[in-house]
Amino acid sequence: MKNFEFHNPTKIIFGKGQVENIGRKAAEYGQNVLLTYGGGSIKKFGLYDEVISLLEKEDLNIFELGGIQSNPRLSKVIEGVKICEENNIDIILAVGGGSTIDASKAISVGYYHDGDLWKMIKNDGDFKKALPLGTILTLAATGSEMNGNAVITNWNKKEKKAIHEAKYPDFSILDPTNTYTVPRKHTVFGIVDIASHVFEQYFSHTKSSYLVDSWAEDILKNLIKKSSVVLSSPENYEARADIMLASTMAFNGIIGMGKEEDWASHAIEHAVSAVYDIPHGAGLSIIFPNWMRYVLASGEEKFAQYGIEVFDIDPQGKTDKDIALEAIDETRNWFDRMDAPATLDYYDISRDDLDLMADKAVEDGKIGNYKKLDKNDVLKILKMSYN
Amino acid sequence: MKNFEFHNPTKIIFGKGQVENIGRKAAEYGQNVLLTYGGGSIKKFGLYDEVISLLEKEDLNIFELGGIQSNPRLSKVIEGVKICEENNIDIILAVGGGSTIDASKAISVGYYHDGDLWKMIKNDGDFKKALPLGTILTLAATGSEMNGNAVITNWNKKEKKAIHEAKYPDFSILDPTNTYTVPRKHTVFGIVDIASHVFEQYFSHTKSSYLVDSWAEDILKNLIKKSSVVLSSPENYEARADIMLASTMAFNGIIGMGKEEDWASHAIEHAVSAVYDIPHGAGLSIIFPNWMRYVLASGEEKFAQYGIEVFDIDPQGKTDKDIALEAIDETRNWFDRMDAPATLDYYDISRDDLDLMADKAVEDGKIGNYKKLDKNDVLKILKMSYN
């Protein structure tokens, strides 16, 4: 186990009906609320009206920033900072999925930043001050509801960058019923994103804590078990709750305790979706199994452990490599069963752009730890990701 | 899954050599430090000298409260509050196990309390203000290093009471090497205490989150696996680290998420050790398996799950009750293998005092949830706890 620090100050408020606390919670921070959200779904399904009415009941002044898209844009962040400045915002309230929350985190720290916002994001600096932030999560996926990270895209420069430990939400309201109406395909992309976060902390050369490793394996087993339930019964409360909890626990620091991590697949996907605006979870579904095949030779034993513990593969008479390859096939099969995309062809991504994407993925140097990947490695993984 | 809130602001700083940060960390809070500790072991093994020298390097003013015993006393808490008042203490630094940390939490909130301290503790009120508190843990057991609870004994009244959500340590330094010198028997009592915390959250009628249940089972499997390692090799870093992490994770709120809990065994043990000053873990080792047998009829299925998942009991051809009884025997066998006491005879506890203990255990009403226990139930469990 490596030395580590763990500190996660976000309060999670979990369960059916918890949204009704939002007015009272927001009022603790002041009078002026910036409500941030994405497309129209929260209006369509009534959550917007509910939140507005709860905030109005507390006589709060509500300002709005809607239309935050997936792969949230720098331009929206700049717009948000301006609203905060002009209206002395006391708390940002993000209602949505990871994109809305990520944009809101960047607004929260951007508010206290003088100078070029994109430079601040690219430098991933030490963010000392931030506006308070509450969230109401509507999609189980990114884990942004209980971590300090955000990913922002500068569409003009076709760049996608992450800031880390920037702003933990002060509180996050997690009501699984708010995910009942998530379309099947986005439920799937969310599940793939959650699984990817686990992979990125699990596949490591650190001699791990038995406990941390088995907790990671449990999140994966939980996801595999519950994914078939939510896809056939989207309003199954217990399954939606378990997947929402998995989202939060997969990326709040717990399963990374004491480990070297490997975020190469995320970096490659970010490079792909910075050029083609594809859903993050879809990109991960395409890239991750190919990353696994590519790095396998750097450590077969861990992949064998993954196969035995997560997929119950019988190790009898098999080498670590046999088990590992079976486990990677099982991963692909699971994604396939959920109709998650398997190849870059699915989004008509041109081979002519692979070089640009590979450049972007490694622009700050080699990526990953399980195997350190240079541009050539990334190109190979991208090429493996076609039919 | 029940609705729940989770908020744990303690920062944990984990690993070999982390103590060297203590001077710098303490200095963040101010000049005046109250160093609290227990018997002589931190002096004997050099930790005291190390901490003093690190605090002196930062030119801090050090005040001391040593001699905090297990089952920490109200009298020590009162003494600590007085030192804080007289010396404008900025931070309390607890170096020790759960008793030292618990006493320090009570001092931390007691400092801001006017009036009768014991009344405050018995009322388990809403503690609004508290002095900053850092800890350096030297015993893996109570989980006090990452929760807001403390248990204090009023020896004059032979009463032992818990306060909850009173004060989370601001930071806790967890260096597994500081547990190398813990005597075998206290290592064992610590392990039993950790296991008991898991049991108390695991055995529940709440239809649980699959994830939370399997995380609890993993802590138990981890403990069983690593207990034999640390008992034969007390300086095995990875095993000590895994047990220290288990201690912290078993009682920081995570495995209680969304569940009704059952703390009856703790209440019974507290009543026993309020009358006879026996080690908490030893009392739990005696009482828990008997509690299990006594409440089994209130829900055999969960105990069967425990047996299958934690002890790998083959369910083939067995009823839930068969599996459950086997699991309880396995629990007792595990405690026996570690030489943890099995009966009240071990401490010469007189049957004449059982009535007094049973009265104390239920003085605030029935205890537990798996089966609600009245005085008569408690008496039966105590009587089962003799040879």
Q: How would you characterize the overall build of this protein?
A:
The structure is a homodimer of 387-residue chains. Helices cover 48% and strands 12% of the residues of chain A. Chain A is α/β, with parallel strands linked by helices and 387 residues long. Chain A has 2 domains: 11-179, Rossmann fold, CATH 3.40.50; 184-384, Dehydroquinate synthase-like - alpha domain (Dehydroquinate synthase-like, alpha domain, Up-down Bundle), CATH 1.20.1090.10. A 6-stranded parallel beta sheet of chain A has the order 1-8-5-4-2-3, with helices on both faces. Chain A has a two-stranded antiparallel ribbon with strand order 6-7. In chain A, helix 8 (210-232) crosses helix 12 and helix 14 (354-361) crosses helix 15. The A-B interface holds A 1-18, 207, 209-212, 214-215, 218-219, 221-222, 225-226, 238, 241-242, 245-246, 249, 254, 257-258 and B 1-18, 207, 209-212, 214-215, 218-219, 221-222, 225-226, 238, 241-242, 245-246, 249, 254, 257-258.
Topology:
Two copies of one chain form a homodimer.
Chain A lengths: L3 E11 L7 H6 L4 E6 L3 H4 L2 H11 L3 E5 L8 H14 L3 E6 L1 H13 L6 H7 L9 E5 L12 E5 L4 E5 L7 E4 L9 H19 L7 H23 L4 H14 L13 H12 L4 H16 L4 H12 L8 H18 L16 H8 L13 H10 L3
Parallel strand pairs in A: 1-8, 2-3, 2-4, 4-5, 5-8
Antiparallel strand pairs in A: 6-7
